[in-house]
Amino acid sequence: MKSHDSIDTYLDDLRRRVARVPGGDDIADEAEDHLRASAASLCSTGFSQAEAERRAVAHYGTPANVAREFKRSSRQGGAVATRFTHLGGAACMALPVLFVAGLAGNRGPRGEEPWHAIGITAQALLYPALIVGVLALIRRHGGLGRAGWVAVAVLVISPLLVMPFSYAGLAIFVVIYAVVFGILAVLLFRAAILPRPAVLAFFGAPLAYALGALIVTLAGGDAGHAWGVPVAMLLVGFAWFGWAMWSEETLVVSQRPARA
Amino acid sequence: MRRETLKGHLDLLLLAVVAPGPTHGYAVIEELRRASGDVFDLPEGTIYPALHRLERAGFLRSEWSTNEGRRRRVYSLTDRGREALDAQRQEWQAFAGAMQLVLRGAT
Q1: Of A259, A201, A243, whose CA–CA distance to A85 is shortest?
Q2: Which of A32, A182, B32, B56 could disulfide-link to A78, CB 3.0 to 4.6 Å?
Q3: What is the pLDDT along chain B (107 residues), one digit of tens a residue?
């Protein structure tokens, strides 16, 4: 690892590393002001200029670490955890439970209470929980740009879009969801705020469906039955995102974060 | 104190340190260290990304000035930042008070 014994050599290295980060010159100027103020303070306590600079630089952190933090931060925009994202985390974690309860209620013995009622209730809650969860995901990222909002808008109106198509609507529904979660996965991956394995589950779900449908079709079956693995991947992704958002410290009560 | 524990509360701590009035990054970090009795002592360069993020989120604003021939960035709290600080401070005090009560009973 390269050592930095003076502020000048440290700043040369830092300027090079943050050159492509937005506001790179300001970052380096701010670091210079900090390091020179820190060194002056140490000199006033009896350290030589050389030793003061060495200590100031050492306490600032390596240029690589500082640049990495700024790169990560620059991708986050004005993203902060709020109570809404906290609530959205709970909604995301509830999705797998609601889905399984809805499925069990739907497939269980007809008319057998209270399990059937629980299943129907779970199915009814699934869609609002999905919308709250996705909105919270976007809010947690300080917005995901126009593409993110288009994806969410399509997600919200998708039941209306497919309603006229009866059974064929199911296939359209799957295609819409694959596109929506594919777009969200790319945007979430680039933002790198929440755990990337969860993003990969989002990204892998549409691919898993395409692959599964192909295999089932080649085997002479109904491609519509290939939904199990991709849905499970999506639910794992949501649960993972949900835990990440649920366990964060929240900062703001109600207001919407400013756009970066 | 574990570094990750401190990082979870960094936003609140930074807002609290900037709250008394406009101040620059070095002074923010020195005050954070002094006010905590040297307990809160993160690598200094990693504090600045958090300050920038809080500015982008609308909780802080910054202006550049000149000091001893160098450019200096000075941060101050916005109305929104003060509102967030007040809300979070109340929540934290309620939490800390409850923790004290429980831990005191456990001795």
Answers
A1: A243
A2: B56
A3: 555 566 668 888 999 999 999 999 999 999 998 998 888 877 888 889 889 888 888 899 999 998 888 899 999 999 989 988 988 888 888 888 888 888 887 66
| Widest CA span in chain B | 57
Rounded-to-integer distance, Cα A245 and Cα A80, Å: 10
Please tell me what DSSP assigns to residue A256.
P
B34 shares contact with chain A (CB less than 8 Å) = no
Looking at residue A252, the DSSP 8-state letter turns out to be B
- ipTM for the complex? 0.86
Q: Which residues of A196-205 are buried (b: 16+ CB within 10 A; e: fewer)?
A: eebbbbbbbb
A153: CB partners within 8 A, 6+ apart:
none
First-to-last CA distance in chain B? 22
Mutate to test the interface with A, among B42, B46, B74 (most CBs of A within 10 A): B46
